[in-house]
Amino acid sequence: MIFGRGRFPAAVGAFEAAVQAQDADAAERSFARLTRGFDKAADADLRAAGPRLAALLGQVPPGPRAVVAVLIGACVERGADPLACTPALFASALDAFEHAAVFCERWAAAGRGEVPDHEGAGLDEADFERIGFEPVMAWQALPQFEMACVAMLNSPQVRREVRGCEGLAAAVGRVADLSGEPFKCLAYALAVLDDEQLIALDRVSGAGFALRVSGVGDNFQLHTLLADALIGRGLVEGQAPSAQAVACCRDQPGMVPTTGSFNLVGADGEWIWNEGKPADIPVVDGVRLVVLDPPAYRRNWPAGRFFPGMTGELVYDHALAPEESAALLARVAEPIG
Predict the structure, then answer these.
(1) Within its chain, how far is the Cα of 191 from the centroid?
(2) Please, which pLDDT band fits residue 1 given cuts at 50, 70 and 90?
(3) What's the confidence (pLDDT) of residue 63?
(4) Residue 210: per-residue pLDDT
(5) What is the pLDDT of residues 236-259, one digit of tens each?
(6) CA 95: distance to chain centroid?
(7) pLDDT the model gives residue 336
(8) What's the average model confidence in pLDDT over 6-21?
(9) Whether the Cβ atoms of residue 85 and residue 69 lie closer than 8 Å to each other
């Protein structure tokens, strides 16, 4: 059932007015109305609400701010303009990760051991005084901000046009180092490549190929798309993935079993692990270069998108001239391990 006509926009307006007036009681009441009505709101109302909530985000108190960020992400998933919503959301996420770094430093300085979970288990009342209210609240809010930022980063426009990804990635990395928690989804989303050239060299045949990669979340997904682009075209020997596996790695929902076609190796001879991401592939002369070796052993995995809301693309461009492939292969180390 759709939330009654006009009621959800009215809830947004009431929350907006309460936050701007710094009326805590009214903000609490309108926030409850907003969250209760969200799931039943019409798509058109959510499209309109996303930018309004984003514009308000920096004024929302630390407690509900992360929940509002998640609501903004959900608005974008229902059609709100991601370019209008992302800058404010990234700014609040950056602030949260920077305060969370302070939390981790003070937690360690106080000798409190392993960091607590984000739900509060392991925290006590004295920690709010010892560490500070805002750093504690920021630490607890990180999963929500991670979810909201990934929703924004599903958009190729956001990844290509919105500034602040580098600063946010640095802040996420710092908190990961301090806490031991990788925040893998956000770290990988911030590192997604778009319209970037990738050179693949088949060590057995000596052939080389230029491709362009966009929106691929991890190397399991990349591996499947590479096998389709090269083996599927008959350019390289090996076992091609099924059409269904390829579709799931591009834009279709779900996952289907597939078998590895290659052993992926960098120009330095190090294995490129499927668990990693395309941005991990070493660069040679300004271009990421991956060597395709025969599989060292049989590997199976569920083929699909690391980010279910992100369209993955690996576009075949052209075959390299034989002399170009040979020159690149001459610079490639033997695989290590």
Answers:
(1) 7
(2) very low
(3) 86
(4) 98
(5) 999 899 999 999 999 999 999 999
(6) 18
(7) 83
(8) 92
(9) no
Going by pLDDT thresholds of 50, 70 and 90, the confidence category of residue 5 is: low
Predicted local confidence at residue 226, as pLDDT: 98
Q: What is the DSSP letter of 53?
A: H
Q: Name residue 204's amino acid.
A: V
Radius of gyration of the chain (CA): 23
Burial 101-119 (b: 16+ CB within 10 A, else e): bbbbebbeeeebeebbebe
Cα distance between residue 13 and residue 206, in whole Å: 64
Angstrom CA distances, 95 to 101, 151, 195, 270, stand at: 10, 18, 30, 36
Helix (H) or strand (E) holding 287: strand 287-293
Model confidence over 261-311: pLDDT tens digits? 999 999 999 999 999 999 999 999 999 999 999 998 899 999 999 999 999
Give the C-alpha separation, 220 to 226, whole Å. 10
Task: Give the DSSP letter string of 78-129.
Answer: TT--HHHHHHHHHHHHHHHHHHHHHHHHHHHHTT--SPPPTTSTT--HHHHH
Which alpha helices (DSSP H) does the chain contain, by range? 7-20, 24-38, 43-56, 62-77, 82-109, 125-131, 133-153, 156-161, 165-179, 184-190, 219-230, 243-250, 322-329
Tokens of 157: 């426009």
Tokens at 65, concatenated: 């701010």
Provide DSSP, 144-179.
HHHHHHHHHHTSHHHHHH-TTHHHHHHHHHHHHHHH
Both tokens of 324, joined, read 């170009």
Is residue 270 within 8 A of residue 281, CB to CB? The reply is no
**pLDDT higher than 70, residue 190:** yes
Pairing label, strands 287-293, 196-202: parallel
Residues in the chain: 337
- Across the range 154-183, mean pLDDT stands at 96
Contact present, 328 and 289 (Cβ < 8 Å)? yes
